[in-house]
Amino acid sequence: MRFMNLRRLFSLSNITTGIMVPFLILVWVNPSVKAGVMQGLMKVGLFQPGMPEEVSPDGNMAPDMSFTDGEGKTFTLSSLRGKVVFLNFWATWCPPCRAEMPSINALYERFREDKNVIFLTVDTDGNYKKASSFLKRQQYSLPLYVADSQIPGELLGRSIPTTVIINKKGQIAYRHEGAADYGNERFMSYFEKYIRK
Question: What sections of the protein cross the membrane (predicted)?
Fold first, then answer.
C-alpha cells in the first residue's frame, strides 16, 4: 500500500507539475526569465515582424519630437529627413523589450556603417544612466537616447516595445507594438532593400 502511494506521489504528471509550477511563477515574476523564454520562441519562428509596405506619396508624416543623447546633445526627428529612421521605444524593466533587444542589436550591427539609416533606441523611462548600464551589461552596442519632448501618440501609444520605421521623406512606413525578431534574415534583407530606395 505504501509503495502504491509513493508510486502515485512520484508519477510523471506530479513530477511535471512540480517542475512547471515553479517555472511559470519564475517566468511571471522575473523579467529576465520571461525575456529568455520569448527569445527562445523568436528562434523557432514566433514574433516575426511584418514587412513595411510602400507608403503612398500623401502618407502620414511622422510628427516631430526631440531626443537627447548621453552627452546632452539634442536633435529633432525632422532633422533626420533624407535617412531611414529605425526608432524603438523600450524600457529596462520590460520583458518583451529585453526579448527583442538582441535582434535589434544584430540589425544595428549589420547596418551601423550605412549612412542611409539612423537607429534610435529610446528609453521611455527617461533614465539614461540606468538604460546605459543595462545595455553595457548585455554588451549591446545600440545608440541610446531619451525623449527631450512629449512623445506623440502616432509614434508611441500605450505599449512598449514599439518600433517605428520612418522613410527618407519623413513618413511613417511601419509601426509595430510588441516584441518582434528584427534580426531574422528575411527582415534584414527587406530592410536593406528599403534603405537603398
Answer: 12-29
Residue 177 CA to residue 124 CA, distance in Å, equals 14
Pair 97, 121: CB distance under 8 Å: no
Cβ atoms of 33 and 27 within 8 Å: the answer is yes
Indicate the SS3 state at residue 61: strand
Q: Which residues contact 124 (CB under 8 A, 6 or more apart)?
A: 89, 90, 91, 147, 151, 156, 160
pTM beyond 0.70: yes
Write out the three cell numbers for 3.
509503495
Per-residue pLDDT tens for 16-63?
655 555 444 544 555 666 566 556 655 655 666 766 665 565 678 999
Domains parsed from the chain with CATH numbers: 66-196 (3.40.30.10)
- Pairing relationship of beta strands 117-123 and 84-90 according to DSSP bridges: parallel
pLDDT digits (tens, 9 = 90+) for 126-167: 999 999 999 999 999 999 999 999 999 999 988 999 999 999
* Matching residue, cell 526579448: 99
Alpha-carbon gap, residue 128 to 135, rounded angstroms? 10
- Half-sphere exposure of residue 70, counting CA atoms within 13 Å on the CB side? 11
